[in-house]
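sorry to bug you again but im stuck and you know this stuff better than me. theres a chain ive been looking at and ive put its sequence and its fold in token form underneath. id like you to explain what the token line says about the fold, in plain words if possible. anything you notice is useful, everything is just below.
___
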Amino acid sequence: MSLPVSTSQAVDLRVQPVDEVLDRVARSLQVRFLPDTVVRKRRSVGARTDRETWVRIERRLLDKITDQGWNGAECAARLDGVSQPTWRGCVVWRDTNATVMWRADETDLLPARPVGNAVLSEDPEIPNEWWAGLNASLGALAAHRTGRVATPDTDTITQASVTESIRAVFSGDFETTVQRWVPAHADLNWANVTAPVFSLFDWEDWGNAPQGLDSASLWGSSLAVPSLADRVRQERRQDFESRDGKLMTLFVCSKILGPYAHPEDPRLEPARRMAEHVIDELQTG
């Protein structure tokens, strides 16, 4: 099954027809998708089913599927102490007309609504219990052991990629070598968490990453709301005070301030200020 486009790279599932894909998944998982519940993103589609579950369908280029496989949600099901929807099963197939694969994962429904978009512009007024849930889940996740390597934005994170991203944007006499790698969600933003009940979902890219990646990612998606960004740093201060957490702060800032930065992005100035502060700490610490 292939979508009617000339190249696999050009596909955007927000605009391409997906009815055939949905029909195939529904038959394979023996479910019916409820009308008006389909959520379409650039490379994934999700929908609620008639058995009170959620199915997320992703289309991924073959060269974006590493040797560790393409089963992040399935592997995350074994993570004790991490608040996430229960994984039920999946169906995977190779597209016969394009260099891509499709994967559909079925999970329990979320316990609450997603907080918002990946980058927030207003304070979501998160309750204190939510922060306790976040801290407990990230602590439990970091205590696990895995052979997986995180793939934020489907790109495998490595020492080389960390150094390259930071040095492409920032100069200074400081070392960029990561000291501690721990399991991370690797896509922690406000679109992938629920509130007022905390739950973390979309585990496709989780794996080992530098300590502080998740905390820095959530902070970066909060920068347009200064009080929220400050709360993230307060709650996750153990990460941010670590040397690796400072490097991950620069790593996230490099994504905000890099060549694809939007001149009207409200995160630009706070990211610049924090980057200067962190570089000063790394050079004098």
